[in-house]
Design goal:
Elements: E1 2-4, E2 12-13, E3 16-17, H1 45-48, E4 78-79, E5 89-93, E6 102-109, E7 116-119, E8 130-133, E9 145-152, H2 154-159, E10 167-171, H3 179-183, E11 187-188, E12 197-202, E13 211-219, E14 224-228, E15 240-243, E16 249-253, E17 266-270, H4 274-284
Parallel strand pairs: 11-16
Antiparallel strand pairs: 1-9, 2-3, 4-13, 5-6, 5-8, 6-7, 7-10, 8-9, 9-10, 12-13, 12-15, 13-14, 14-17, 15-16
Length: 288
């Protein structure tokens, strides 16, 4: 595992040096249909990262992860109406907050310190990034939350391994309250398997509102899962894969193979297993 903070966190954002990267909120991550990565071939993980090994969503005060409102057919994304925004999901912005650009998505997971978010490792390059839960239309309904510490696996830090494209970040208190106490959190799901239905909710970089999609998942490899959902373009990296209700269990995030996929209609996630559990335990350890 690797615990990082400040300017040395995770090191890269979408294959760009964190010090020089301009978060791509003003243009899609792909020039030909969107996706989860920058459009330039020079920085696309599709050609830089090996494929993983082959193998045969509110009864509580917090919003539900799976809004039910004229649900489209499975696999078709729609914009989430503001009253149905899941409070646990938010956009990641650069240090200028909502006046800047949002480049990824993250969500709150239940933790002893009530201060943890999960996203893709390629989304976090510095603790100068901020998390804005429930963001929409330039509004931060639950506040702007600063990051204190980022925890990624050494497999990502050393080699940008697609099988380690998961990150946790400890979020600093705001006005004396923890982020989980304000917006709630998802249960972290480990070894949830494949074949079930999940709901993805994420923030396209060119939109001020999130989109959501529900569909069956399947195994892409022994280490990665995939889902067919339309419209998951650049900025949706890190979007939680949520199963169940009230508010649900996050068992993946858009990322992994090709940093989430090279088409907006098919997305990938690391299959959350023991390595993610270990990462979570490191992130929740008060000794770090």
């Amino acid at each position: 595992m690797a615990c990082t903070s400040g300017a040395t966190a995770a090191g890269k954002i979408f294959g760009l040096n964190a010090a020089n990267a301009e978060k791509t909120a003003t243009s899609p991550r792909r020039s030909s249909g969107g996706g989860h990565q920058p459009p330039s071939p020079a920085v696309r993980k599709a050609t830089a990262s090996p494929a993983p090994s082959a193998a045969p969503a509110r009864s509580s005060p917090h919003a539900t992860a799976s809004p039910a409102h004229q649900a489209p057919p499975p696999g078709v994304s729609r914009t989430v109406p503001v009253p149905q925004l899941p409070s646990q999901v938010g956009a990641l912005f650069d240090g200028s907050g909502v006046s800047g650009s949002h480049h990824c998505t993250a969500s709150v997971v239940n933790s002893p310190g009530e201060d943890l978010i999960v996203t893709a490792a390629h989304c976090l390059g510095s603790t100068s990034d901020v998390f804005v839960p429930g963001y929409h239309d330039g509004v931060a309904p639950y506040g702007v939350w600063h990051l204190e510490r980022i925890v990624v696996d050494a497999g990502w830090t050393d080699d940008s391994s697609p099988d380690d494209d998961v990150a946790f970040a400890v979020v600093a208190p705001l006005d004396g309250r923890t982020v989980q106490s304000v917006v709630g959190g998802y249960t972290l799901g480990i070894d949830e398997g494949t074949g079930g239905r999940v709901t993805l909710t994420g923030y396209p970089a060119t939109s001020q509102d999130p989109v959501t999609c529900t569909n069956q998942i399947s195994s892409f490899s022994s280490t990665q899962n995939e889902i067919h959902c339309t419209g998951m373009t650049g900025g949706t990296s890190g979007s939680p894969w949520v199963t169940g209700d009230n508010p649900g269990t996050v068992m993946g995030v858009i990322g992994g193979y090709e940093q989430g996929g090279d088409t907006p209609d098919v997305s990938y996630s690391v299959a959350f297993g023991q390595s993610v559990q270990n990462l979570y335990e490191e992130a929740t350890s008060s000794g770090n």
